[in-house]
């Protein structure tokens, strides 16, 4: 996790501290600890919704957080 901290911090604007909301598939992969290909497969399988803005497919941070929440459970 120590290696990811600087990368995750880079998702906020340096001047304002406002956190980035929309991610590319590659950035979403970093956020989830998955590959870009894995993110694209989740999109293709309709497990991850996308936002299309100016013709670019991006993933909303809230969709990533929801995916994490939906996949979180106690093992028995």
Q: Can you describe this structure?
A:
With 76 residues, this protein is of the alpha+beta class. The protein has one domain (4-70). It has helices at 4-9, 25-32, 36-44, 61-70; strands at 22-23, 51-53, 56-60. A hairpin with a 2-residue loop joins β2 (51-53) and β3.
The proportion of residues forming helix, as a percent range, comes to: 40-55%
Q: Please give the oligomerization state of what you see.
A: single chain
Low-confidence stretches: none
Overall tally of domains: 1
Per DSSP E runs of 2 or more residues, the count of β-strands stands at 3
Biggest sheet: strands side by side, in what order?
Answer: 1-3-2
Which structural category do the helix and sheet elements fall into? alpha+beta
- The helix/strand series, from N terminus to C terminus, equals HEHHEEH
Largest sheet: 3 strands, antiparallel
CA-CA gap between termini: 26 Å
**Computed Rg:** 13 Å
A few lines on this structure:
The chain has about 80 residues and is α+β, with helices and mostly antiparallel strands.
Topology:
Blueprint: H1 4-9, E1 22-23, H2 25-32, H3 36-44, E2 51-53, E3 56-60, H4 61-70
Helix pairs in contact: 2-3
Features:
single chain; 76 residues; alpha+beta; three-stranded antiparallel β-sheet; 13% strand; globular
């Amino acid at each position: 996790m120590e290696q990811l901290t600087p990368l995750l911090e880079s998702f906020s604007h340096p001047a304002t501290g406002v956190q980035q909301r929309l991610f590319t598939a590659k950035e979403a992969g970093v956020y989830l600890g998955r590959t870009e290909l894995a993110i694209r497969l989740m999109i293709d399988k309709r497990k991850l919704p996308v936002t299309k803005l100016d013709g670019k497919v991006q993933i909303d941070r809230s969709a990533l957080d929801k995916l994490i929440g939906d996949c979180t459970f106690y093992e028995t």
